[in-house]
Amino acid sequence: MITTLIKAYKIIRLASLPHPLKTLTLIVLVSALYACGGGAANTTTPPSNETITETETETETETETETETETELLTGTFKLNATTHVSGLYYISGNNTGYTSANGGFSYQQNDDIQFFIGDIALPNTLAQATIDTVLLAGNSDPANTVTANITRLLIALDADQNPNNGIEITSATHQIAEQITLNFASSTFTSDSASLVASAGGVLPSKVAALENIAIALGADTSCGSSHEKIGTSAEFNTFAYGVAGTVTVVNDCTLLFTRFSYTGGGLPDVYFYTGPNGNFNQGSGFGPNLYGQTFETTTHIQTISPNALNELDAISVWCVQAGVDFGSGVFNR
């Protein structure tokens, strides 16, 4: 009986042996146990070596499939906005590195982070995914769209031909100019901090409003409505009161509002609109845009046209339930 237990113990220890040796030794020991009457009454037929080999093969196949899934190489795209690709950015994502292709392409693996660089200037880190743009890079909290605008401004300024309409290209020469340079995209001194770099690259740094309008135009904003209103460039941050309302809204020209990271679950009564708030009073305001009820927004970037009269009374903005007279979320525009 002791001898039998020792032999069984040896079989259990085989788990630590390399695969080919494990299989061969297992067959020999099982055969030895069977031949020597290893069972208590020797009435149980031990599994054949074919069964053992089949089980191990199935396990190996499952492991290989899991490994392939975990390491599948995916392709994403970096965009300045909804339509403009950015090529020539250096990136690091897990074990994948390289430069974005002519159409902004980069390689990544599921659940890996990614970071893009111009020389030694690091753009904000984010989760690698199919499409990345300047709004996504800025993160979930970007008051007044400052980081979004400054990343966009820099990419436009460093474009090889200074024409963002045909794509953004960051050249190797620009990477060399940007060596040993760091920038804080949230800084109030970003314009002066980046001035020397932009001048060396032969570019022109656009204004914050121009950068945000570039994002809006790519989404279909009307470029003929003018840019003279005093509220252009002002922003409001939504305070959340109900149904997940959140995000930032910026006036980018005389008839366009740019919403970034905007969220709303679509709930409430069936008459929910964006409302102006003259002096912050939405009961005296007016609605504009489509009925929002039933529509779901999840950190989206989109535009909304607004009439001159509505813009005049846009001291604050609300996602407003008209029937109940309830504010689901609102913000006051900065000055």
What would the keywords be for this entry?
alpha+beta, five-stranded antiparallel beta sheet, 9 helices
What does this structure look like?
This protein has helices at residues 2-13, 19-35, 49-70, 134-138, 146-157, 172-177, 190-200, 208-218, 308-312; strands at residues 73-79, 86-87, 90-93, 96-99, 105-109, 113-118, 121-122, 126-127, 131-133, 168-169, 235-237, 239-240, 246-253, 256-264, 272-276, 287-288, 297-305, 316-321, 326-332. A hairpin with a 4-residue loop joins strand 18 and strand 19. Strands 3, 4, 6, 7 and 8 form a five-stranded antiparallel β-sheet that branches. A five-stranded antiparallel β-sheet has the order 12-19-18-15-16, with no helix packed on it. Strands 11-13-14-17 form a four-stranded antiparallel β-sheet, covered by helices on one side. Helix 1 (2-13) packs antiparallel against helix 2 (19-35). It has nine helices and 19 strands. With 335 residues, it is α+β, with helices and mostly antiparallel strands.
